[in-house]
Each structure stands twice: as structure tokens, then as C-alpha cells.
Fold this sequence. Notes:
Strands 1, 2, 3, 4, 5, 6, 7, 8, 9 and 10 form a 10-stranded antiparallel beta sheet that branches. This protein has one domain: Regulatory factor, effector binding domain (Multidrug-efflux Transporter 1 Regulator Bmrr, Chain A, Alpha-Beta Barrel). By secondary structure, it is an alpha+beta fold. It is built from 2 helices and 10 strands; from the N terminus they run βββαββββαβββ. It has helices at about 35-55, 120-130, and strands at about 10-15, 20-25, 30-35, 65-70, 75-85, 100, 105-115, 135, 140-145, 155-165. The protein is globular. This is AraC family transcriptional regulator. InterPro entries: AraC_E-bd, GyrI-like, Reg_factor_effector_dom_sf.
Amino acid sequence: MIGAGEGRQMDIEEGRLGPLHLYAISSGPAPIPRDEVPPVVYRLFEQLRERLADIDIEISGRAIAWYERVIGEFGEHSQRVWVGYVADDDEVGGEMSPIVLDGAEHVAIGMHHGPMATIRQSWNELFDWVHEHGGHSAGYMREVHLKAWPYPEDEWVTKLELPFDEDDDDPIGE
């Protein structure tokens, strides 16, 4: 574990991620402004749960949200939102096939406790940590919802995973 460090609210550790098979849907081609992301995530998870129930697929895996950074119509920084549930290996095929979310060799990992309204601060800490250690983000930012619905938001626990690349002249951890 790397530790919280000066001015940090959460412990940050470095790890690796393997690829995941997920039943997933996205917000579509239109970019979503950052301040509008939380309600979109909630709505997409609800739609995905309904779609999976309609085709008799039982949700047994973790809930994961991830984000593609895109530039909006007027040059603003926005995101395309994806949500999914980890698929059991024996569920591949049928009416809805899982997609593969690629793994990553280097990932900054932290735990966010509490409502989604305050998650930006936790993401900023991860981005700052990567930058301070000479890296840059690379890949999809992921949120693994460890404790979420139907619990009160102040009890939620979300694992944040930020893939990054190391700069050759200043590797993280050295």
C-alpha cells in the first residue's frame, strides 16, 4: 500500500487489472458533461437490470461503471458513461453477450466512502497521485460498487481504479 500521503484523504495503492467479461450498456454517442454523470449512471444501471431480468439473466457479479473521456460538441471535456455487471463464464452467448473490458498493467486504486456527489474529490486524489509519480492516465477510469443500492448513500463504498502509463524516465515506485 502506498498510503494516504500528505494532504490525502484516502490510501492509494498500485495494482494490476485483468480483463473482465461484462453485461453492459452505455450512454450512447452523445457526451455527458461531468456534472451530469451521477444521474446517468443510476439510470443506466436501472435499465441494465431491467434488460437482464427480461431475458432471465440473474445478476451475480459486481456492478462496475467506467468512463470514456471525449470532447463535446463545443470543445468541452465530457464523458461517455458505461455500466455493467460482471458475467459468469458460463453465461456467454444467448440473447445478450458480454463485452470485454481490457485489463491494465498499472492501476492506481483507492476507496471512496460515501455518496457519489463527493466522488470527484477522490478521483482528483488518484489523478494527482499518478501525476506526482511521473505517470499519466491511460485507459478507462473504473468504479467498482462494493456497497451501493439499496443502502443509504452515506454507507456506500466504491473502489476507484485509474489505469496509467509510466513515463520511461521516472517510473512510479522508484
